[in-house]
Amino acid sequence: MFGKILIANRGEIACRVIRTARRLGVRTVAVYSDADARAWHVEMADEAVHIGPSPVGESYLRGDRIVAAALATGAEAIHPGYGFLSENPDFVDQVTAAGLVFIGPSAASIRAMGLKDAAKRLMETAGVPVVPGYHGEAQEIVLLASKAREIGYPVLIKARAGGGGKGMRRVDHPDDFSEALSGARREAKAAFGDDRVLVEKYVDKPRHIEVQVFGDNFGNAVHLFERDCSAQRRHQKVIEEAPAPGMTPALRKAMTEAAVKAAKAISYSGAGTIEFIVDASQGLKADRFWFMEMNTRLQVEHPVTEMVTGIDLVEWQLRVASGEKLPSAQAEIQLAGHAFEARIYAEDATRGFLPATGTLHHLKFPDAAPAHAAMRIETGVRAGDAISPFYDPMIAKLVVHGKDRAAALAALRKALAETEVAGSTVNTAFLAALAADADFAAGDVDTGLIGRHQDELVAIAPPNGEIIAAAALAASGAGAQEPTSDPWSALAGYAHFHTVERRTRLRYGEEAILARISMRPDGRFQVALEAPYEEVNSHDLRTTPRLARWPGHVTVFEGAAGYNFAVPDPLAKADEAAAASGSLRAPMPGLVKLVRAGSGDAVVKGQPLLILEAMKMEHTIAAPHDGVVAEIVAEGAQVSDGTVLVRFEEPQT
Ligand code: ADP
Ligand code: ADP
Ligand code: MG
Question: In the chain, N or C: fewer CB atoms in 10 Å?
Answer without folding.
Answer: C
